[in-house]
Amino acid sequence: MRVLVQSEAFDATALLDGFGAGAGAVVTFTGLVRGDGGLTALDIEHYPGMTERALRDHAQAALDRFQLTDVLVVHRYGHLPVGAPIMMVATAARHRRAAFDAADFLMDWLKSRAPFWKREITAAGPGDWVAAADHDEAALDRWR
């Protein structure tokens, strides 16, 4: 298991080198900053220590729940322009369904519960802090 919280861009190919060796399935997802509604960037903040611990705990929950052979979670913070990779999850399991379900489980939690604070930036300047959307909350409910 590996959890990275960083400001720097990540190299998905390098991070995945050797990941899931011996597994029957590897699923990856990379999220990008969208340019919806005139958005030009996101400013993402977090509390060091607390964030890493929360992500590690949830990654461990995914390992246990879906009997994964490995898991990787990467999440960035700082000023991220539209199109920049913001996060990535990778799951490895003996079977594809477990790998896909675990990736969904991690993503649903990251979208609505991970301790990051995101502020929208537009051409007019800093805007609102982003709250979890209703559909993100509904997606999380399926894992309870």
Automatic annotation (TrEMBL):
UniProtKB keywords: Molybdenum cofactor biosynthesis
The protein's annotated pathway: Cofactor biosynthesis; molybdopterin biosynthesis
CDD domains xref list: MoaE (cd00756)
Protein EC: 2.8.1.12
GO process terms (BP): Mo-molybdopterin cofactor biosynthetic process
Pfam families: MoaE
Sections of the chain in a coiled coil: none
An annotated Gene Ontology molecular function: molybdopterin synthase activity
Family membership: Belongs to the MoaE family.
Subunit comment: Heterotetramer of 2 MoaD subunits and 2 MoaE subunits. Also stable as homodimer. The enzyme changes between these two forms during catalysis.
PANTHER family listed in its UniProt record: MOLYBDOPTERIN SYNTHASE RELATED (PTHR23404)
Name by which UniProt lists this protein: Molybdopterin synthase catalytic subunit
Organism of this sequence: Paracoccus sanguinis
